[in-house]
Amino acid sequence: MDDVLRPIYQERASNAHTLGVLIYEKKKRISPVTDNFDVILLIVVTEATDPWYVKHYQFGEKTAAMHIVEEKLLNHWIDTSSYRRALEWIMDGKVLFDRNEYIAQLKEQLEDFPTEKRQLKLAMEFAKLTRNYSEAKDLFSSKHYFDAYSKVLSSLHSLGRLSIIEHGYHPEVIVWNQIKQINPGVHKLYLELIQSKETIEKRVELMLIAIDFSLWKHAKLSASHLLDVMRSSDEAWSFGELKVHPSIQLYELDLSTMIDYLVDKDLIEVVHVETKGKSIFHRKYRVKE
């Protein structure tokens, strides 16, 4: 199939800004990985007018989508798992052009999943999990059981992804298949939630207990990225200082619930600093050793 598409990507490959070209072919009739296109052409460039340019093609009964992506944006997708399809294109795609072994090194990096990147992803997923869990509890206590159910389901997704990342893998688009193999316990919770004959209220109540237990089980490892940042200073941190720290910006939106959870579990302690106001204190945080 790459022979048919060669005229499309050949000109791009000769461009000095092009780092690599991959082709990924649809493996199933219904293919969320390719948005149901028969072929994906991924072209990685150092710079472009549009950081992500997409063009669709038809040839005979077949369809193709060409994605031209700046290296910076692609790295952001990889670091944040914000466009997991691209990870699968890279890992399982066929290399058509590779300048200075850029794609080969990228594949190797994804397979190795360096510790620092793994810790960042764990922190991002854990922060998201604390947010969903907190909202699920609030919705449950307010008797909004269907909304609580939705948040519990999102929490289980995050728990599953945490397990995958802890084992050194990147979460895929079809994530529950991975979870079933890596953490059957979380997969069993998922089945209990969606298949149980209990009322929605009872299902959510039981899941909140199970998620609370699992959260604590993952807490120290998953929060290590944040705790290491906090240990980099002898002084206690204000929330504002943590929020703008470059290493934390990828999970800043969920940082508040993450810190609240870690304070509640005694992994972070609150430090009160006097202000000019009587009986009013700045609230700062440091790791409880």
Description of the molecule:
The protein contains 12 helices and 8 strands. The model has no long low-confidence stretch (mean pLDDT 91). The relative contact order is 0.09. With 289 residues, it is of the alpha+beta class. A 5-stranded mixed beta sheet has the order 3-4-2-1-5, sandwiched between helices. It has helices at 2-13, 71-80, 84-92, 102-112, 115-141, 145-166, 175-182, 184-195, 200-222, 224-231, 239-243, 255-264, and strands at 18-25, 39-45, 52-59, 62-70, 94-98, 237-238, 268-274, 281-287. The longest helix is centred in the middle third of the chain and has 27 residues, at 115-141.
- Number of helices, where a helix is a run of at least 4 consecutive DSSP H or I residues: 12
Please give the number of β-strands: 8
Q: What class, by secondary structure content?
A: alpha+beta
Q: For the largest sheet, list the strands in their spatial order.
A: 3-4-2-1-5
Low-confidence stretches: none
Shape: globular
Helix proportion? 40-55%
Distance between the termini: 59 Å
SSE run: HEEEEHHEHHHHHHHEHHEE
Query: Strand share of the residues?
Result: 15-25%
Largest sheet: 5 strands, mixed
Query: Looking at the chains present, what oligomeric state does this protein adopt?
Result: single chain
The gyration radius over C-alpha positions equals: 23 Å
Mean pLDDT equals: 91
